[in-house]
Amino acid sequence: MTPSIDTVRAWIAAAQRVVVLTGAGISTDSGIPDFRGPQGVWTLNPKAEKMSDIRYYTTDPEVRRLSWQSRLAHPAWTARPNAGHAALVALEQRGKLHALVTQNIDGLHQRAGLPPEKVIEVHGTLHYAMCLTCGWRGPMQDVLDRVRAGEEDPPCTECAGILKSDTISFGQPLVPEVIERAMRVAGECDVLLAIGSTLQVYPVAGAVPLAKEAGARVVILNAQATQFDDLADAVLRTHIGEALPYLCGG
Ligand SMILES: [Zn+2]
Predict the structure, then answer these.
(1) Phi and psi at residue 193, in whole multiples of 5°?
(2) Which of 41, 67, 154, 156 meets the CB 3.0–4.6 Å disulfide criterion with 161?
């Protein structure tokens, strides 16, 4: 039987270095859909999956035009952090958050008030744009202004190369230094708290067995079962926005 939520709360209260791993499930209460879920954008609109694949993106201008329209309309621009995000800020303010590793690109952890240096965005961020040719990087809103002004597929102003969001698409390599840092902090924590992630995407999912191996307690808070439930010290199926404020509160 899994330990109770009170037991997990006591583990967190006693912990000195908590590492939190978050996935789409923490942002759904903020109105950001889970792209992989049954009601996800990819499931309901197969074209959206093409937009997330670098091979289609670089070869098909129509896919890029649709991608820019999709970025303009992305719910992240108006989304507000929810109680789950706020609870993790409280954890940080208690001096317990060693680092937060997120698969999300919405920037809501920082908007909630987490110091940016504590947030490791393994799949990049929607808040920046980058050039696939010269590596230029700049604020996404500046590029979206060009789209609003009528450029359907704005090229890089430095080299005329293809621009996209600074996120990891399918077929694109992860950033090795970012992944290394995520794995390092996972090996340094005393509690690993995995929230709202199905833990299916590697190498990030590997942070869970890595932390366990290094001696950390592993807590999984997710609506669905994950492959690491058996390895976890506690599995909580409670609603994230209700459970986290209790787990992280002083
Ligand atoms: Zn460029």
Answers:
(1) -115, 110
(2) 156
